[in-house]
Every structure is written in structure tokens, then in C-alpha cells.
Amino acid sequence: MEQNPAENGLSESAAGQTLAAAWDDLAAGLSDDWSDLFVEVELHSNELYYAAALIAAPLNPGRCGERAAFRFRVGRDFGYGAAAPLARRRLELLDEHGVEGRLRLLDVLSQRRPFATQGPVWRIAGHSL
């Protein structure tokens, strides 16, 4: 089920904002103890989807059905997901290549201290992420 960030209090980038700037705003609004993020980039155009997917490949992006959008995880200190500096750099590269879109924070976990595991599993439409 899709979540609307306005309904759940999570962040969404402003119109006309670069993806890297949106990341900076998102990161600035996180609590000091965040551990895992689930993020979506929705592109303004389908035309650049495959180029964007190649640039974002180190983030292990997952396509969102037929939409021109992909989702990825970010792990702060350990576990599954891209490192935060890598996520920001990839978004900056998308900006440099003229890929425009909107960044959404879909979910965030804080104070996670797993034992004998890589971390949480998000289940979306019956699929594990």
C-alpha cells in the first residue's frame, strides 16, 4: 500500500528542488538515532528511467511497478542498504545528468540494535525488501 508522506509525517521534496538538496533536507530532519531509511525517487519523465537506474545502481534500486520511480534502503552504521554518503552522491549524479524527480522518505527506523541479523525486513505487497 502506498503511503502519503503528508499523512504519516514523513518528508517529501519540494517542487523544483534538486534531488541532492532534497536529500540534505531529509537528512537534516532526521532524529539523531535513525538507523534505517526506505526512500523513493519518482522521476518527472519515463524517458530517463533507464539512465537513472544505471546511475542509481549502487543503491540497489527496486522499480515501482510501471511508474517511473525506484526505491532503495539506506543503513546508517550497519546492516542492509546503501551508506548515506553514497545515497547522497548518487542523487547528486542524477542532478548532474539532468534527471529531475521527487524524493520521498517512505519509512524510517530509529534506535535499532539488531542481534545476529543484518537488520529489519520491510514487507511491501507481499515482497521482502
Highlighted features:
globular; two-stranded antiparallel sheet; disordered N terminus; 6 strands; alpha+beta; Alpha-Beta Plaits; single chain; 129 residues; 4 helices
Concise account of the structure shown:
By secondary structure, this protein is α+β, with helices and mostly antiparallel strands. Helices cover 26% and strands 26% of the residues.
Tell me what the structure shows.
With 129 residues, this protein is an alpha+beta fold. It has four helices and six strands, in the order H-H-E-H-E-E-H-E-E-E. The protein has a domain of 81 residues: Alpha-Beta Plaits. The chain is globular and about 45 Å long. Helix 2 runs antiparallel to helix 4. A four-stranded antiparallel β-sheet has the order 2-3-1-4, covered by helices on one side. Strands 5-6 form a two-stranded antiparallel ribbon. A hairpin with a 2-residue loop joins strand 5 and strand 6.
CATH class term of the domain at 32-112: Alpha Beta
Total helical segments: 4
Number of strands: 6
Secondary-structure element pattern, one letter each: HHEHEEHEEE
User: What would the average pLDDT be, to the nearest integer?
Assistant: 83
Low-confidence stretches: 1-9
Intertermini distance: 14 Å
Helix content: 25-40%
**Can you tell me the CATH topology of the domain at 32-112?**
Alpha-Beta Plaits
Q: What is the correct CATH architecture of the domain at 32-112?
A: 2-Layer Sandwich
Largest sheet: 4 strands, antiparallel
Shape: globular
Could you give the order of strands across the largest sheet? 2-3-1-4
- Cα-atom Rg, whole angstroms? 14 Å
Range of strand content: 25-35%
Structural class: alpha+beta
